[in-house]
Amino acid sequence: MKLGSFDIIGNIAVLPLFTKNPAAIARQLMHENKSIKTVFMKAGKIKGRLRRNHLKFISGVRTKETIHRESGCSFKLDVEKCYFSPRLSNDRIDVCRQVKPGEKVLVMFSGIGPYSIVLAKNSKAKEVYGIELNTLATHYSQENIKLNKLKNCFAIQGDVKKIIPKLKKKGLKFDRIVMARPQLKEDFLEDALKISKEGTIIHFYDFLKEEEMPESALDKITSAVNKSKKKLRWIDSWKIIRWKRALEIGPRKWRVRVDFYVF
Questions:
Q1: 20 to 30 A from 40, CA-CA: which of 3, 105, 184, 218?
Q2: pTM, whole model, 2 decimals?
């Protein structure tokens, strides 16, 4: 039987929506990969502000909690109640390689802490802060900070729009801001710019079709920067440091990352 695309998160495999013969595929997966102990199938799209999955149990040990390992880091999570994509591991380490010694980094919409923890553990960042609305995801993020024995990483539970003014009031501004969740009802760029400073690098994510790249994202960035009365640093013909396809999410549709300086 030919296996289609699926995700492995720790010792749990998650089959895509509408997988044919999921029980047979689960048996094959567990036979060929002894580290897989549980198999679920997606039973709906990721929904809501808390980004929760809807999963159907197929086979194995009936648990939704696992520990996933990536880039020398360990992440404990509930695969249904907390959003996590193992397919973004390359993007996380790519952002990590750009972090300079002594930087203060903010990760917006940080989830269980994959970007925060990879950056804190694998770079020489001074401090890495993550903000996440999902209370359970924040709990796991705090647990994962302890699990990875980090002293320079902090998880904050709450709404980005309410937390950022509090950070600003404390005088916190960041050298690098990772906007880890694309295409919300608002782009939250104006919020990120409130705690940026001269030379801050922002990693902005968006979902774009091939024909929209990267101009659609650039329009959002330019509009937000103009409203904030800050300036973009025009680096090249694309007016940014760079942009890249971070993850293919469908036919001719991508999760795109745009990296740019603010002054």
A1: 184
A2: 0.90
